Amino acid sequence: MKIILPVAGKGTRLRPHTHTRAKSLVQVAGKTVLEHIIERLKVLAAEELIFITDENGQQIEAFMKRCFPDLKCSYIVQKDRLGPAHAVSLAAPRIVPGDDVLVVFNDTIFVTDLGRILDLCADCDGLIFSKEVEDYQRFGVNVIRDGIIVDMVEKPDTPISRLAQVGLYYLRDASGFMRYLDQAIQAGDTVKGEFYLPAVFMRMIRDGLRFRAPEIDAWLDCGKPETLLETNRYLLEQRHSCRGELVDTVVIPPVYIAEGVKVKGSIIGPYVSLATGTVVEASIIRDSIINADCHVRDANLRFSILGNAVKLSGSPRRMNIGDDSLIEIDS
């Protein structure tokens, strides 16, 4: 199996944090989004991970070499921003006949048993993983008949289906999938100038290919500050860890306090992530993500995200601060 990971994109909804790093390298619950995703993919023992990157590709490559040196990876730059289907199509030179392929987009962390893929796909050509949602109007949805996808509708006005596509796709015939991608691109099958995967899948469905839509257990959005904090809460429920140096401090679980963190005279938690090198003094922090090498003093934080090396002094309640910032607020 080959795995394609499109990680290009500006991550504008996560600014200021994506001004200085690739969006998949934003931290949540003590790890980067990409690290959470790769750990979930390791069960597949894939032959190769194919990253489709933008100008931040060197950050992705350096991260993978540092954290997952044993995995075979290749990196392809998407020079023209022509949409997600175009990004996936750039992996074609890495695909050979007989390959199957998993496509994983990086705005979300998924919770599902990928070890069941071959069983789930035993009587069909591919899987378009889905999650039932209430706000179906915000998503592309799969329309199912007798367990098989018969249509896909982008942001429907009526509840024709509540099974939203979650950005996780499996194709048994990777070479055939690449041919369909090329057909869609050659036909100019765009929406507002960009190529999207549902149009490709509908070509395949019209030609008689069969897709199922297995539902995942959890769909954790990391694309906006508020949803990143929601994901932080979910993941900390599964992974409470406190390895820092605490003095006169109360910890309310669940939290992630990394080794190398120093906290003095503070109340931390619930749902707080403190990355290595951070120092917290005389502060109350709840529902927040504090990245590496920050210094927080005399602060009362909730629903906040601080980038790397932020120095914050004062009593704000809610902050969203990028890397290397200095904020001083007089009491």
| Average of pLDDT | 88
Question: Which fold does the CATH topology of the largest domain refer to?
Answer: Spore Coat Polysaccharide Biosynthesis Protein SpsA, Chain A
By CATH, the architecture of the largest domain is named Alpha-Beta Complex
**What characterizes the major β-sheet?**
8 strands, parallel
Portion in helices = 10-25%
Give the full name of the CATH homologous superfamily of the largest domain.
Spore Coat Polysaccharide Biosynthesis Protein SpsA, Chain A
Structural class: alpha/beta
- List segments where confidence is low: pLDDT < 50 over at least 5 consecutive residues: none
How many structural domains does the protein architecture include? Answer: 2
Query: Would you count the extended β strands for me?
Result: 29
How many helices? The count is 7
Strand coverage percent: 25-35%
Query: Distance between termini?
Result: 58 Å
The quaternary organization reads as single chain
**Which word captures the global form?**
elongated
Q: In CATH, what is the class of the largest domain?
A: Alpha Beta
The radius of gyration over CA amounts to 21 Å
Domain Nucleotidyl transferase: 4-237
Organism: Syntrophotalea acetylenica (Pelobacter acetylenicus)
Pfam family, one: NTP_transferase
Keywords: Transferase
